DNA sequence: CAGGCTCCAAATGTATACGATTTGATGAGC
DNA sequence: GCTCATCAAATCGTATACATTTGGAGCCTG
């Protein structure tokens, strides 16, 4: 979190992070164009850096780059959306099980704090922050399971999930149903591997079931406005 | 293989492909340094393009880039190696099941051809090509399962697997044990979902069991020699 | 002679300049 | 009035020049 004071040193990662946040909080909607020069002006860096950011986000699946056309916030199809949650369903239950077998009291305390922060964000009606924390909860489970590769991998899937929620979610407030997270923390505390696995499995199935076919298209957004806070 | 004759039109992807092949065939060993200028000379392109390639390979997990230090062929730790195969064990059995339910006669014929090509490569003692085909077989299963996201994902894991084999394999020729692949194709042909899933599970477990703790370090290799064919 | 310091060459990081492609508008022709 | 060719502005792709960092050679010093 050390943000350099020298204004010149805005790194590609920082730009990617801010763009990611804008996407997660729906200030940047799927399909929005990300013109290189515009991003340059906003962050006061050269196109070299901006291009690094955009390519990085493309790898994470948040941005689609079309040669000679430009970069756009990714707009997952319904099939891609299902695939993301199917992939998570393959991975996360096993991670929940492993986490239950490894979780220390410190880990459980950390998750408790995490859930509290999520609830607070919801109470303050900071939906974007709540969404981010809700996704990060799943990543933290994998961290406790001590599986660095899948942690990286799931972070990407979670990032895409936020995008998908923007497009295909039936009822936005459904994500505030934190009973599954509560149950998971309890299972981890009790070293209940089977329980943790089952809860995670059901939780992800719930999420998948709430995907909807409605057309998620909506008007474009000014990039500059989206990044202003 | 095809080194473009028009010196101007070597793309970043082509360079990444050739480097990947050199890594897979162990002509470039884990830890080898990839100096930007050197790669520039070899392919006659600017550093811009080379940097794109190296970053792309970093994302795939084949190359590690250290800031202000340079790019190196990745050298997975034993833990990372195990994680790769654990991740595959979570994903691939389910894909084998899905593939068994969807495989057309054309798909089965394609896999038969694929296995034959692999056997031919082994007969010709083209170990690198055989290794590549053996890995690609797994990716093709996912393609048949019609899961684009996991197909991309597994392709990366398979690429890393080749690296791991270079470092941690107990007996190189073990990969020539193609009976599991044979069994998989049969299961797909017979629409035997349970069988396909079980075979894949066992196959990956076999692979994991053959990882060895021996130190995989070895001397550096000349980059130019590694790319000459 | 060991230790460390300065300075320089080499390699990477970043910005800018130039060229190629796309796009949207304009206007001629049907 | 509509269609299509043409062109200019906008935008992206690539190469190159400049800045920064690193690692080590060589020298000084204790």
Description:
Two copies of one chain form a homodimer. Chain A has helices at 12-24, 36-43, 47-60, 78-102, 105-123, 127-145, 148-168, 179-189, 193-209, 223-227, and strands at residues 33-34, 63-66, 70-73. With 229 residues, chain A is mainly alpha-helical. A three-stranded antiparallel sheet of chain A has the order 1-3-2. The A-B interface holds A 52, 55, 59, 79-80, 83-84, 86-87, 90-91, 94, 147-150, 153 and B 52, 55, 59, 79-80, 83-84, 86-87, 90-91, 94, 147-150, 153. The structure holds a DNA duplex (30 and 30 nucleotides).
Assembly context of the chains: homodimer
Number of helices of chain A: 10
Large-scale geometry of chain A: globular
From the helix content, strand content and strand pairing of chain A, which structural class follows?
mainly alpha
Number of strands of chain A: 3
Write the layout of secondary structure elements.
The structure is a homodimer of 229-residue chains.
Chain A: H1 12-24, E1 33-34, H2 36-43, H3 47-60, E2 63-66, E3 70-73, H4 78-102, H5 105-123, H6 127-145, H7 148-168, H8 179-189, H9 193-209, H10 223-227
Antiparallel strand pairs in A: 1-3, 2-3
Helix pairs in contact in A: 1-3, 2-3, 4-6, 4-7, 4-8, 4-9, 5-6, 5-8, 6-7, 8-9
Chain A binds a DNA duplex (30 and 30 nucleotides) through residues 35-37, 45-49, 51, 67-70.
């Amino acid at each position: 979190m050390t943000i350099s004071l020298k204004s010149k040193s805005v790194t590609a990662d920082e730009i990617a992070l801010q763009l990611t946040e804008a996407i997660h909080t729906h200030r940047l909607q799927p399909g929005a164009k990300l013109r290189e020069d515009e991003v340059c002006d906003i962050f006061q860096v050269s196109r070299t850096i901006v291009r690094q950011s955009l390519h990085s986000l493309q790898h994470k699946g948040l941005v689609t780059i079309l040669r000679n056309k430009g970069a756009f916030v990714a707009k997952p199809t319904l099939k891609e959306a299902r695939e993301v949650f199917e992939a998570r369903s393959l991975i996360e239950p096993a991670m929940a099980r492993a986490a239950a077998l490894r979780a220390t009291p410190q880990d459980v305390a950390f998750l408790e704090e995490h859930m509290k922060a999520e609830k607070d964000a919801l109470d303050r009606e900071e939906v974007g922050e709540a969404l981010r924390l809700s996704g990060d909860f799943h990543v933290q489970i994998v961290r406790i399971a001590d599986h660095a590769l899948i942690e990286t991998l799931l972070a990407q899937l979670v990032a895409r999930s936020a995008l998908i929620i923007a497009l295909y979610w039936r009822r936005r407030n459904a994500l505030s149903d934190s009973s599954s997270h509560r149950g998971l923390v309890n299972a981890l505390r009790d070293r209940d591997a089977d329980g943790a696995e089952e809860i995670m499995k059901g939780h992800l199935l719930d999420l998948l079931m709430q995907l909807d076919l409605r057309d998620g298209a909506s008007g474009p957004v000014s990039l500059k406005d989206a990044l202003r806070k």
